[in-house]
Write a structure and sequence with these properties.
Length: about 450
């Protein structure tokens, strides 16, 4: 269901007034069974707007449960964007896990209370919440508890693999393509990639393949800053030196990071955990270079724009700190989610009004294309301004339009592609069997290894 999207400063005030009063008894750390019970309790309280599904299992067999919010759970509605929050990728960074459990409860409670801002979000967005990507690592960290948890204890999965260093490295291929004018989106995965990643990573990649996500955030701990792509530097590593690695969408990524930082109670102030980040944001590679991370993978393999949110100095804060952290992050979690409704969106049709999936949407001046989903709908995050946009698909003539994007809801821009005229095949020269007795060698395959 589509409703008019008009952000307002008053909405933030209403959100604060209508939120339930916070007390320390509302908050606790959730072991796996506790987390599952909490998620199913939300589903039981709001059965008509929620759905729980598993995207796979961890090394030790724990389900990776996702809680979905939508006015039509389980169904992608055309022109309704898909959004995801991912928490607890590092098992000992637990605040994101607890915030997402509380955020799920909050969405259900506020929807039932008639909060118009939350109702509009759920009616116009399909929201997916994965509180824990690394439940095995969490259990290792939780056995030590907040008082004795080490900096690395429980960080990795059950095989002690860092999941944020475990995605296929598409940056190297992207940086090569930048120099050779190659492909700028949906880069191919390397051969046998499924055997090279952990079960949790595999589950998340399959999840990305099954849902056309538009916007995402990945919740971490150990610092307080909104980190945006690229994480991996374009330059060879030099000890003690960092370099800014901008994406073609650097301006929108900076704005997305600022949205969270300034809606957060103290992130935007810059000084946190003994570090200073101007406006509370940083380019990943400018902070330190990281290979095989999830946020870069989202951008290079899918239509999804993802940032990494570092939310607490203490990786495993005590339960007594959770109420303050919730109040500090609540508005930011809502405001960031609302950003999925900016830019342009539309349908790509053929001459007979049949939707065209996998059509490419290119914006002049931004060397990163997105594609339409299987239902023919596309979503392109953009800042306010005037843009020239081209839609193209194999077998069709491309179509170009100019559109002006405002600061409010996404502008709808539909494309109707005409079938390309068939080309007459060139005559084939007679084959000289005497000169070609053997088959030609297959061309050498160049992959991102």
């Amino acid at each position: 269901m589509q409703q008019r999207w008009t952000p307002s400063w008053l909405a933030a005030v209403l959100l604060g007034l209508m939120g339930l009063l916070v007390s320390g008894s509302d908050f606790q750390h959730h072991r796996f069974e506790d987390m599952v019970r909490a998620l199913f309790a939300v589903q039981s309280e709001c059965p008509y707007i929620t759905r729980i599904y598993s995207i796979g299992r961890s090394v030790e067999g724990r389900h990776l449960y996702v809680l979905e919010f939508s006015d039509n759970p389980g169904i992608h509605e055309a022109l309704e964007p898909e959004f995801k929050y991912v928490g607890n990728m590092h098992g000992n960074e637990v605040l994101g896990r607890e915030l997402l459990i509380k955020f799920s409860q909050f969405l259900c409670e506020e929807y039932r209370a008639g909060n118009q801002r939350i109702m509009r979000l759920i009616h116009d967005t399909r929201i997916h919440i994965l509180p824990s990507m690394n439940p095995d690592g969490y259990e290792v960290a939780a056995r030590q508890g907040p008082e004795f948890n080490g900096y690395l204890v429980g960080r990795g999965n059950a095989r002690e693999m860092d999941l944020n260093r475990n995605f296929p490295d598409l940056n190297a291929l992207m940086y090569y393509y930048e120099k050779t004018n190659g492909r700028n989106h949906h880069l191919p995965l390397p051969d046998n990639w499924e055997q090279q990643v952990e079960p949790e990573t595999l589950a998340v990649i399959k999840w990305m393949q099954n849902y056309n996500f538009v916007l995402s955030a990945n919740l971490h701990g150990g610092a307080v800053v909104a980190n945006y792509p690229f994480d991996k530097s374009r330059d060879p590593r030099i000890r003690g030196r960092t370099t800014y690695a901008a994406t073609p969408d650097d301006k929108i990524f900076r704005q997305l990071a600022r949205t969270y930082s300034y809606a957060h109670s103290w992130m935007h102030k810059g000084w946190n955990c003994g570090d200073f980040f101007d406006e509370g944001i940083t380019n990943g590679a400018s902070w330190y270079s990281l290979s095989k991370g999830m946020q870069d993978f989202n951008y290079l393999y899918t239509n999804c724009f993802e940032i990494t949110l570092e939310l607490s100095c203490d990786k495993f804060p005590p339960a007594s700190a959770l109420p303050r952290e919730w109040l500090g992050n609540r508005e930011a979690l809502v405001s960031y989610l609302e950003q999925v409704h900016h830019g342009i969106k539309g349908m790509v049709y053929d001459e007979n009004n049949n939707p065209i999936g996998n059509a490419e949407i290119a914006v002049a001046g931004i060397h990163h294309d997105v594609t339409s989903g299987v239902d023919g709908d596309y979503f392109r995050l953009l800042l306010p301004g005037t843009y020239t946009v081209t839609a193209s698909a194999p077998g069709y003539l491309s179509s170009t339009s100019t559109v002006t994007v405002g600061p409010a809801e996404a502008i709808q821009l539909h494309f109707y592609l005409k079938t390309a005229p068939k080309q007459n095949p060139k005559p084939v020269k007679p084959h000289n069997s005497k000169k070609n007795l053997s088959s030609p060698k297959a061309p050498l395959k160049l992959g991102p290894r």
